[in-house]
Amino acid sequence: MKKIISMIMAVICVVGITACTKDETKSNTIDTLVEIREEITEEITEETTEEANKYLANFDIGDWENDRYVNRYIDMSFPMLSGWDKMTDEELSEYGGLTEEEILALRDGEISPEDAVMYYCFALKKDNGLGNIIFGFENISNSTSIGLGKIINEEEYIKAVADNLGKSEETEYKIEKIAPIMIADTMFYELTVSSMKGALIQKYYVHKIDCMMCFIMVTAYKGYEDDVEKFINGITTISGVNITTVETE
Fold it and tell me: How far apart, in whole angstroms, are the C-alpha atoms of residue 29 and residue 13?
């Protein structure tokens, strides 16, 4: 989870740098990320078991099929958005967690799912640089999930992410929403946060499969809410079932 939290902050910072390209801002952002990674150092006892990892034999990183990304492990099909582009592995590595070489090795199967911590499956970027979408998996049996000495569920995971974002001294994050949501006939937990005085919105969705935590991270400036909604509403099962939101108090 340390990598996830660093990546969340990195995504917000990189998008922010695109919007205001001052060298001083970029330098401060890099310093902030270094400090964050140094501060998040608490380790937990890893509980990797054969029972958890045996299901990874069916793990699938997925691939683009025409204009949709298909992942059979989670039984989901993701849309390509008009005005958005696919990120290269080099661009994706800028968000932290994995190097370009590691991303390629995971995709080519040179690193097994049992040994992996993080998978980036695909990523999209708004053509003006003011938004991005990242889909992937974290093997939580291999992770050091902060403050939790067990393989956690979606609600615990998302609340731990929210708690640690709230501790940031460099960037002020406002927690807008934590709630369950159905995406393509699958129950996820959603975390919505804002920063930059509400100018930047990030939606983070997680769903646990075996020992893998699937994540969908959508980041965009205000004014691009329609793109975010279009992407989430465009996710289906491979057979075509669409989204239904769960209303909660």
Answer: 6
Q: Residue with structure tokens 């401060």?
A: 28
Kindly report, residue by residue over 38-60, the tens digit of the pLDDT.
454 344 334 444 555 556 677 88
46 close to 142: Cβ distance less than 8 angstroms? yes
Written as one string, the DSSP assignment of the chain is -HHHHHHHHHHHHHHHHHHS--HHHHHHHHHHHHHHHHH----------HHHHGGGGG----EEETTEEEETTTTEEEEPPTTEEEPPHHHHHTTSSS-HHHHHHHHTTSS-TTT-SEEEEEEEEETTSSEEEEEEEEETTSS--TT--S---HHHHHHHHHHHHHT-SSS--EEEEEEEEEETTEEEEEEEEEETTTTEEEEEEEEEETTEEEEEEEEEETT-HHHHHHHHHT-B-TT----BPPP--
pLDDT digits (tens, 9 = 90+) for 146-164: 444 455 789 988 988 888 8
Q: Which span out of 141-150, 187-196, 232-241 was modeled with the highest average pLDDT?
A: 187-196
Query: Structure tokens of 39?
Result: 């501060």
Assessment of whether the complete model's pTM goes beyond 0.70: yes
